[in-house]
TrEMBL record:
Sequence ranges assigned to domain Cytochrome c in this UniProt record: 11-92
Record carries keyword Heme: yes
Gene3D superfamilies: Cytochrome c-like domain
Nuclease among keywords: no
Signal peptide (from-to): none
Keyword vocabulary terms for this entry: Heme, Iron, Metal-binding
InterPro entries per record: Cyt_c-like_dom (IPR009056), Cyt_c-like_dom_sf (IPR036909)
Record protein name field: Cytochrome c
Length: 94
């Protein structure tokens, strides 16, 4: 899966289809394939509405120390992490 993640971000432009696949496959491996929660918490829009997008972006990029949430900063840009944060809060809007 790491290969999928790194190839999704090879270009400078944001690729929504690749980012959606990353959310479903890579995030889904811990947060559940339907994103309802698993090892990690629920990532559906209704569960994330009270979070600020900057906070979600930071968690995506830097992970959460002493938890299973890894930092994705080595594998994606800040713009890609911002896109994912927006997508998680509003999946129908992307």
């Amino acid at each position: 899966m790491l290969f999928l993640a790194t190839t999704a971000f090879a270009a400078d432009a944001i690729d929504p289809a690749a980012l959606k696949r990353l959310v479903q496959q890579d995030c889904g491996s811990c947060h559940g394939l339907t994103l309802k929660g698993g090892l990690g918490p629920d990532l559906r829009a209704e569960a994330l509405q009270h979070y600020d997008q900057d906070v979600l972006t930071s968690v995506i990029l830097d992970g959460i120390p002493d938890t299973a949430m890894p930092p994705w900063r080595p594998l994606m840009t800040e713009e890609e992490a911002e896109w994912i944060a927006r997508y998680l809060q509003n999946p129908e809007g992307k």
